[in-house]
Structures are given as C-alpha cells and as structure tokens.
Write a structure and sequence with these properties.
The chain has 16 helices and 17 strands. By secondary structure, the chain is α/β, with parallel strands linked by helices. The strands form four sheets. Strands 10-9-12-13-14-15-17-16 form an eight-stranded mixed β-sheet. A five-stranded parallel β-sheet has the order 2-3-6-1-7, with helices on both faces. A two-stranded antiparallel ribbon has the order 4-5. Helix 1 crosses helix 2, helix 7 packs across helix 8 and helix 11 packs across helix 12. The longest helix is centred in the middle third of the chain and has 24 residues. The chain is globular and about 75 Å long. The two termini are about 30 Å apart.
Length: about 425
C-alpha cells in the first residue's frame, strides 16, 4: 500500500467543512483505495467506530439498489437520524453510476443524486465523500450542482515520487520504467513486463472505451478508437478537430465530420483519460480557440495505446511534466510569444505557462541540449517573453541544477519530479 499523503492530507484538511467532498480521477487510479482504505484507516486511528462509517460501492451488485438516489438518501437518513448526537461519515464510490428518477408525487419532477446529496449534507452529524470517474457524470460544474458547497479533490495515477517511494533503487532506472509503463497503481504488483502490458491494454478494451461508448451512446466506436490513436501519436503537438477529421477521412476513405470528432474528444476528456492544454498569448493575455495540445493522464496508457511502437522520450517527458504540474494543483497553458525581430511576426512556443495563484513561471521541456544551436532554440521563446517571471528549462542531460547568464534556471527532470527543487 502506497501512502498517498498528498491527497490524504487534502481530505483531512477538509473534514467537516459543510461541503460534499468530491474525489475525481480516471478509473483505476486509486480513488477508492484513497477513500475506502487510507482515509478509512485514518478515521479508525482517530477512534471513529466502524459502524459510523457508511460505505456504499455502487459498482458492487449488492449495492445496485442504491443507484436510485431516493433509496440511497432514505437509507442514510434512517441511520443518521436515530443518533443525531453522534457523527457519521458517508462514502459513496463511483457516484456517476446513480440514476435519475421521476418523482410521481411531485408532478414527475426529475430527481438526481445531487438533490439527495444536497439534502444529506444538511445533516450536521454527517460528513459526505463521493468518488467519480467521469466529469460528465458528476457534472462539469460541480459547484453549481452542489449549490456552491462542494470540495473537489482530483487525483491522478501515481506520480514519479510516489512510484519511486515504492520501487526505490537507481533513480534513472526507475524513471525509465515509469516513462514506459506509467503510474497506474496495480502495475506495482505485476513484476512481469508482459503482464504489465496486458494490464494496460485491458484497461482500454474492457474499461475506458466501454465506459465512453456506453455512457455517451457512441455509434462510431471505430472513429473513437482512431481518435485515441491519433492523440496518442501526437502528444505535445498542436492539433484541432478539423485536422484530426481530415487525417481520419484520408485513412478511412470516407468523410469524417469535424463536429463528430470534437464531440468524441469531449467525451474522452470527460473520462479524464486525456487532458487538453489551451494556447495562451503571453503578451496579449488572451486564449486561442485552436489548435491545442493533448496529453494523456497516464503515459503508460498512451504507450500501450500505440503498442509501444512510438517511444519518443522528448514528447513522453513533456507529457509527464504537464501531468505533474496539474497534480500539484497549478493552472497550466501552452504559451505563445511573437518574434518580431528582422521584420517577421513568427509565433514561438513556451511549453508551459504555469500559474499558482498570483505567481507565474515559464517552463520549457528539453530532453537534451547538447549543442549551442539546440540550447539557443530551446531558450529563445523564454527570452522573447521579456518580463521578470521565473524561466525554467527542465532537462534530462544535466547532473546538477544551475542558472545561466540569462537568469534561466536549468533543472534536472528527476530532481523536479522528486520535489528536490522549488519551481516557484
């Protein structure tokens, strides 16, 4: 068992805050373990009685009846009102599996799990926690659904720091394994490489694709699969639905509608399988609608999608950095700066514009900078920003961290992932 203290401490800090704690993340990334094992054991260690922790796993057959939100609410209310002077905790796993029903006694009004949870959180002796694997099932606007009274805690597969805390040994060897197989927690119990590959492939075929198809009524599963392949092959590259539709039209010898592609990408991002990074004009302080970059939530799933044929360490490194920044709670965009030197208006890219509240830094991901030409190319966009925010190049090819003569901080990737340097 890996102690995921980063997330556990967030849950502990928000206990009894009067809000529903909504724990989201891709399926099999460890949400249930975090809530039903780690947080459960914490409560027991604090003297909470087992019978005061109500655990409902909606993907278990014995709990199917609680997918009806009214049945769920009545069951919990019956327990917590009997001893209103005692504190109870409610855990609901995979809350997106609940149904919407019509209340025949009230003109057929539709009742959702949000209505029931809003009712339950009103009990002063009940603290509510739910997990979900789909932003659409939870609603993209959780604050609205919970009337502004929800705390969202989004978790990711294992970070490299969590992964290394378990495997130990040579750091570079551990990173090589992480860059290939990613951080889905169950992989740690699978020592055989074939078993790891089979597991990651099965997650796609038996879980993620099936979930997306069934939840959204996907009619063209073949197009969905080809979009996933395309996005996997294009991590860290700019693209848009029109480009993807054109590429698919060419390979499939049929017209593929860009609106359909855009909708399917929306379903994929709703499942937390892939994240989209929007482009931001550093000088104009505005966002571009397209093109964007797409990154896999877990790099192992991306590699499995391509059957490990397209192992490009520079792009993989960039994907890992992006997800790590999101995991730390930062807002992350792709930066755009315009080079007007020599009478041109050439747009150049800063890999990541990272915001933490009112603080901002620029980050460039560079697998290797083994020549002056390469170093100049990687740092040129940072210099074009022409402001005083910290500028960082994260690299694989330096043994120690340093500032260059332009004030740019050169940071070793492993040091960054293991938290040995402060970015801000």
């Amino acid at each position: 068992m890996i102690n995921r203290d980063f997330y556990l401490n967030r849950i502990i800090r928000n206990m009894w805050n009067g809000e529903v704690k909504v724990i989201t993340g891709i399926r099999r990334c460890g949400k249930s373990v975090l809530l039903f094992d780690l947080f459960y054991e914490y409560l027991i260690s604090q003297g909470v009685s087992e019978d005061h922790i109500l655990k409902i796993e909606l993907d278990q057959r014995r709990n199917y009846k609680f997918r009806n939100p009214v049945t769920l609410c009545e069951y919990v209310e019956d327990l917590v009102t009997k001893k209103s002077d005692e504190k109870y905790y409610l855990f609901i796993d995979e809350v997106q599996l609940t149904l919407k029903i019509k209340d025949r006694d009230n003109d057929g009004i539709e009742i959702s799990v949000y209505d029931m949870l809003n009712e339950l959180k009103a009990y002063k002796n009940l603290d509510v926690y739910v997990t979900g694997s789909n932003s659409k099932g939870l609603s993209k606007d959780i604050a609205t659904e919970f009337r502004g009274r929800a705390t969202r805690i989004h978790i990711f597969p294992l970070s490299f720091k969590e992964f290394y805390s378990y495997v130990g040994g040579d750091e570079q060897k551990a990173l090589d394994s992480y860059m290939l197989y990613g951080g889905m927690p169950r992989l740690l119990s699978l020592p055989d490489e074939k078993d790891k590959k089979d597991y990651l492939s099965s997650l796609y075929d038996e879980l993620y694709i099936r979930d997306i198809v069934e939840r959204n009524g996907i009619e063209r599963e073949d197009i969905l699969n080809e979009i996933l392949d395309f996005l996997a092959s294009q991590i860290s590259s700019l693209t848009n639905p029109a480009n993807i539709a054109n590429a698919l039209s060419s390979t499939k010898k049929e017209k593929v509608n860009s609106v359909l592609v855009s909708n399917y990408i929306g379903h994929i991002t709703d499942s937390f399988l892939i994240s989209v990074a929007k482009r931001y004009d550093v000088k104009g302080k505005t966002y571009f609608k397209y093109p964007n970059k797409y990154y896999y939530t877990d790099i192992g799933l991306r590699n499995a999608r391509l059957n490990y044929r397209q192992y490009d360490p520079g792009h993989i490194m960039e994907n890992i950095i992006y997800v790590e920044l999101l995991r730390r709670g930062y807002s992350v965009d792709v930066g755009v700066v315009t080079d007007r030197r020599r009478g041109t208006n050439l747009q150049k890219e800063i890999d990541f514009v990272v915001n933490d509240g009112d603080k901002k830094i620029y980050i460039q991901s560079a697998f290797r900078m083994d020549s002056e030409k390469k170093e100049s190319a990687e740092t040129a966009s940072l210099m074009l920003a022409k402001d005083f925010f910290k500028k960082v190049v994260i690299r694989m090819d330096i043994p120690h961290n340093y500032y260059d003569e332009n004030g740019i901080f050169h940071c070793n990737l492993i040091d960054m992932l293991l938290g040995r340097v402060e970015l801000f």
